[in-house]
């Protein structure tokens, strides 16, 4: 292995992918289905799958690293519900991967040490609590303020209930976090018609683009991704092979996270994770910058192979 910076390394991997290589860049590891919250529209906590052991997850991480993964995402459920979460974070780092933890934000950030937290948000104040539980929003804000030095990104999943709060969320969280990321809810069967239509998403994306131009708003979603919103996506254009999915029972597959639950309707999907990767595969440097910021990498050196 050798030390290097992300963008030159990504271009190296990009040339390999263009030559037919289909090795993944990111591993999305669903380390648990357990969660302290029971959001009605969330399908993940409703699954009854036994958790794998610490040692089994270590082996899964080793396999992912051997396949070319440099970015390890720990999610759930709520990953901090695992007693061994610190061991999983440390082992991922020891293997040379950047470790990001997706969280509901109610447990203390200071207790763990991923490269970056992604805090999942459903809206501002009571709107967030309506989809989660009463008092959860205030717990998140308190947690953020208590841990100023922790690298953290707020991710707002946009739907019909919170779309009117975009600027309010951006204004409030910009000075408190390392960035705001917007994601459009996928119309899962369990989403109860909360997802925005393509035309609604396109209108919203144009609004976010205008907000992003304001210096005081720290929106890290790329212009390239936002400008692509509303356009029909074809499955063959989505570089889902870049993502290795490791399920709670350690089942491994490359591809679309939606298809862990149901067949993906690619033409209506504007999920930010795949949307930014799609633009990065076109060497859009603002999407590469998004990947760099959102992983906690910035410009520091990382051991790469």
SSE topology string? EHEHEHEEHHEHEHHEEHHE
Major β-sheet annotation: 8 strands, mixed
Low-confidence stretches: none
Which fold name corresponds to the CATH topology? TIM Barrel
The top-level CATH class is Alpha Beta
Through-space gap between termini: 5 Å
Instruction: Give the class from helix and strand content and strand pairing.
Output: alpha/beta
**Total DSSP E strands:** 10
- Shape, per Cα inertia axes: globular
Considering the protein shown, what is the CATH homologous superfamily? Aldolase class I
Question: Beta-sheet strand percentage?
Answer: 15-25%
In CATH, the architecture is Alpha-Beta Barrel
- Figure out the total of helices: 10
Helix content: 25-40%
Residue-averaged pLDDT: 86
| Domains, number | 1
Chart the SSEs and their pairings.
Blueprint lengths: L1 E3 L1 H13 L7 E5 L23 H14 L3 E5 L9 H10 L3 E6 L12 E6 L4 H6 L4 H11 L5 E7 L7 H8 L6 E5 L13 H15 L10 H6 L14 E4 L5 E3 L17 H9 L4 H10 L7 E3 L1
Parallel strand pairs: 2-3, 2-8, 3-4, 4-5, 5-6, 6-7
Antiparallel strand pairs: 1-10, 8-9
Feature tags:
single chain; two-stranded antiparallel ribbon; 305 residues; TIM Barrel; alpha/beta; 8-stranded mixed beta sheet; 33% helix
